Q: What sequence folds into this?
DNA sequence: TAAATCAGTTTATTTTATAAACCAAATAAA
DNA sequence: TTTATTTGGTTTATAAAATAAACTGATTTA
C-alpha cells in the first residue's frame, strides 16, 4: 500500500486538480462554482497547490474586474497520476 | 462531483477498510503490520470505524494473549462502494 | 523476581480543513 | 453624487482530524 500524497488527499484540492487535469486553464470563480466551495477555503487550497508547484496562478483582468487564472504544471500532472497509482493499491479496480 | 465520505477519506481508515473488504476478518496485529501504522493511531481509527458501524470488533484470546478481531459490516461495505463511486467523479480509474 | 515484550488504550500535540471576518475595486441605487 | 451592494478575492480564527507519546496491564523471558 503506497502512501497517499497528503497534498492531494484532500477533497477540495483533489477537486481543483481534477478539474485542471481536464482543461487548459480555469479561473477562481469557475473553480469556486464547480467545487461548491467558499472563496476562503478555495483561496487557501490554491495557495497550497501553488506552494507545492502543482499549479500556476496568474493574476490578470477580465475587463475591469480582477481575474485569477490557474493551470496545472507538469509536476502537478505527475503528482496527480502518482496519486491515482497509489489509490489503486487501496481500491482494487 | 460527489462528496467524499470524510470517514473513509483518511489514509489509515481507508487502508483498514480496504483490507477488510478482501478478507473475512483481520486482527489488530495484522492490520497494524499491513498498514505500517502505530498502535495508538490504529486504535483510534478502528474506534471511529466502529462508532460509524462500518466495522465490528471482537475482543477474544489467542492462547493467553488478547486478540482483537475486526470485520467489515454490510453498512461498511456499502459506504466503501459509495466512496469509490464518488471518487470516480474526481479521477477516471 | 526483575526486566522486557505484547496488545492495546488514553491523552496530548500538531496539522488540516473550513468558515468567518475582512478588504479593495467596481457597479448599482437613491 | 454619495451611499449601498456586489464581486473577487485574502487573512485570520476556530473546529476537527491525524498522529504520536505516554501509559496500562497482562505475559514472557532472563
A:
Amino acid at each position: 500500500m503506497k502512501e497517499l500524497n497528503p497534498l492531494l488527499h484532500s477533497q477540495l484540492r483533489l477537486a481543483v486538480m481534477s478539474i485542471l487535469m481536464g482543461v487548459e486553464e480555469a479561473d477562481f470563480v469557475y473553480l469556486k462554482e464547480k467545487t461548491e466551495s467558499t472563496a476562503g477555503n478555495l483561496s487557501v487550497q490554491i495557495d497550497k497547490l501553488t506552494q507545492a508547484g502543482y499549479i500556476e496562478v496568474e493574476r490578470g483582468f477580465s475587463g475591469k474586474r480582477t481575474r485569477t487564472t490557474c493551470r496545472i504544471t507538469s509536476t502537478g500532472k505527475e503528482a496527480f497520476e502518482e496519486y491515482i497509482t497509489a489509490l489503486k493499491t487501496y481500491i482494487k479496480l
Notes: Residues 28-29, 32, 39-40, 42-44, 47, 65-68 of chain B lie near DNA strand C (CB under 10 Å from a C1'). The radius of gyration of chain B is 14 Å.
